[in-house]
Amino acid sequence: MSDWELLELTQQETTQLDAPYLIFNGDIDDESFSKTGRGIVDWCPDRVAGQMRLPGGTLDIGVPYLSVAEAVEKGVRSFVIGITPIGGQMPVHWYPVVVEAIEAGIDIVSGLHSRLTDIPEFVEAASRSGARLIDIRVPPRGIPVGSGEKRSGKRVLMVGTDCAVGKKYSALALTRALTGLGINATFRATGQTGIMIAGNGIAVDAVVADFISGAAELLSPANDDDHWDVIEGQGSLFNPGYAAVSLGLMHGSQPDALVICHEATLTQILGWPEYSIPSLDECMETNLRMARLTNPDVRIAGLSINTSKLAENKRGQYLDDLSKEMGLPCSDPMIDGALAIAESIRDI
Amino acid sequence: MSDWELLELTQQETTQLDAPYLIFNGDIDDESFSKTGRGIVDWCPDRVAGQMRLPGGTLDIGVPYLSVAEAVEKGVRSFVIGITPIGGQMPVHWYPVVVEAIEAGIDIVSGLHSRLTDIPEFVEAASRSGARLIDIRVPPRGIPVGSGEKRSGKRVLMVGTDCAVGKKYSALALTRALTGLGINATFRATGQTGIMIAGNGIAVDAVVADFISGAAELLSPANDDDHWDVIEGQGSLFNPGYAAVSLGLMHGSQPDALVICHEATLTQILGWPEYSIPSLDECMETNLRMARLTNPDVRIAGLSINTSKLAENKRGQYLDDLSKEMGLPCSDPMIDGALAIAESIRDI
Questions:
Q1: Contacts with A240 from chain B: Cβ below 8 Å
Q2: Distance between CA B210 and CA B214 in Å, rounded?
Q3: Do A275 and B148 lie within an 8 Å CB cutoff?
Q4: What ipTM was estimated for this complex?
Q5: In degrees rounded to 5, what are phi and psi of residue A23?
């Protein structure tokens, strides 16, 4: 059975993960690799039953340690690889415990570059137990070309002056703030960690070019008129490598509102030193122009700014000044949450 | 051996086809399916040794009929499927002659939806003879993320008010016109028929989203300072399904010049009836805005208009009026060629 056939049997329209999770940290001893696992524990503690590490590993993401046998007892459905080793390949000495989990009928969930379905031991064990091998980087099959048809419900999309400026975090904080205001809202994941947190989604950057806007349509399907999908952005229209992903995601999302995400001190596109970060005005104007194709009424709901590199006593003033200058709510979701932006969305 | 491994062994950076071709028309009896074969004969007769049809087939693209044995004698290197049967699958009764060609060491070149490498008879025969199975829709492996780095040489990209408005034809006509002016110019193919004509290229719409601009960079590599790459466009920034492809292709192409391609009578996006064709002004402005990211000096070289649906006695006036209104050369490449646009490019 080829990878593709296996996927066809095991995946629906979007990638779907079953909770609760056992988060696997391998034998990693560098705290900086724990971001994914910690993100899952922070944003969806209800989906997490425990963690596991191998001898030599030191990460502790603050949930109970479980063996595979204990995980089975607790009803664990997914063994989630919570860290990315250097090079993105799974080390061979991790295989035995992964096989043990597969044999116990637990799905394996991985965002590694190397595919679970390329490892014969895993495929064989899965064919016996019925557990799924879910490579989050591999998009589901059967994604259509975007239809462009208007659908019910409302959508807000995170867009950025660059990649890696806090779009996922902003979307999660905004979803929390909207829910806090009593608004029905769902976080929609477009990248690996987001998918693990949400339990479903599509890694849109791995979708074939012709189908990006179609993938975005699947991600935020028709919904109640007063429901908001809060869509994790990807890339940036100003990134010479990844702008295509951003545009397809935007067109398929048909956003009613955009949140501009930015890192306060950034001047150059990360990894493309010849490219400057656009001004916030240019960023807003270009994003609005391109988004109007599929939603002529799109507007900017606010700016979500990562101010972590500003001096602590300057952040408040920076955000206040920016808010006045732009006439829009501006907040740092790590500090203030996203209440002001949520309130601006409520009024749309 | 999986498809991917096979591709890794058989393809380089761009898809490369060896000439001369034997163009295969199967048992098709509907003239409207002969466009690809005719395009190849029209635009690159030097690459074509002959054609082949099966009993029941009636297509004649005006080159000698050859059997596989005769093709071998003539030094044919590629057996090119020149037609697309309904549904895009290869009929089983075509298999024997394809296997015969493979066994004779001739590469098979296909743009069908079904993959050559999924047909075990073909894979087995190819493993014996060393012939390549080239699925043009499958992009080569190892395409990098776009670097955005400026490279030498000049580039002109076809962009459109919609898909299917004549971008390939415009690029071919412009390449011919530039060459006629003594300018070094190369047609760069981004779609199936274009790749068969050029003998190389990448089907950019089949590339994974993250790598579209990188694919475009491979397609038009660094060149002599006075050399022009004439790049076949794909999609349109105004098409809600395919705009992402267009943007990635644009960013990777770093065009010095754009040619706006349009069908004179079109009012709605083909296949998306709720979407209007943009005005030519809006089309130019949006394309320039987005292209400036990777080439701030980009300009519009002219408009290439398909006037075939206008009354014959109105076409000249239409083009003259448009040219005056826009202050740019406007021509129909089917009627006038692309000399005026080529002259405008010479002056850049």
A1: 146-148, 213, 251, 293-294
A2: 8
A3: yes
A4: 0.91
A5: -95, 125
CA–CA gap between residue A195 and residue A172 (Å, rounded) = 12
pLDDT tens-digit map of A110-120: 998 889 999 99
What secondary structure letter does DSSP report for B79? E
Q: Least CB-CB distance to B210: which of A205, A213, A275?
A: A205
Say if residue A5's pLDDT is above 90.
no
A-B C-beta contacts closer than 8 Å: 123
Mean pLDDT, chain A, rounded, equals 93
Q: Which residue has the tokens 């549904």?
A: B87
Which helix (DSSP H) or strand (DSSP E) does residue A122 occupy? helix A120-129
**pTM more than 0.80:** yes
Q: b/e map of A139-162 (b: 16 or more CB within 10 Å)?
A: bbeebebbbbeeeebbbbbbbbbb
| % of chain A beyond a pLDDT of 70 | 97
* B99, B66, B25, B57: CA torsion to nearest 10: -110
CB B136 within 8 A of CB B15: yes
Return the pLDDT at B232.
97
Tell whether A148 lies on the interface with B, counting CB pairs under 8 A.
yes
Q: Tell me which fold the domain B154-346 belongs to.
A: Rossmann fold (3.40.50)
Q: What is the CATH number of domain B3-135?
A: 3.40.50.720
Please check the confidence at residue B8 and state whether its pLDDT lies above 90.
no
Per DSSP, the three-state class of B274 is: strand
Report yes or no: A146 at the B interface, CB cutoff 8 Å. Answer: yes
Coil vs helix vs strand at B184: coil
- Whether the CA torsion A298, A300, A301, A304 is positive or negative: it is positive
A134 burial via Cβ count (<10 Å: 0-12, 13-18, 19+)? buried
CB contact under 8 A, B241 and A275: no
Is the Cβ–Cβ distance between B139 and B202 less than 8 Å? yes
Domains B3-135 and B154-346 share a fold: yes
E strand or H helix that includes residue A316: helix A315-326
Best probe of the B interface among A118, A293, A298, by most B CBs < 10 A, is: A293
B281 band by pLDDT with thresholds 50, 70 and 90? very high
- The domain spans of chain B are 3-135, 154-346
* A46 and B CB contact within 8 Å: no
User: Distance of CA B151 to CAs A101, A274, B174, Å?
Assistant: 50, 13, 22
Q: Which of A241, A293, A294 has its CB closest to that of B213?
A: A241
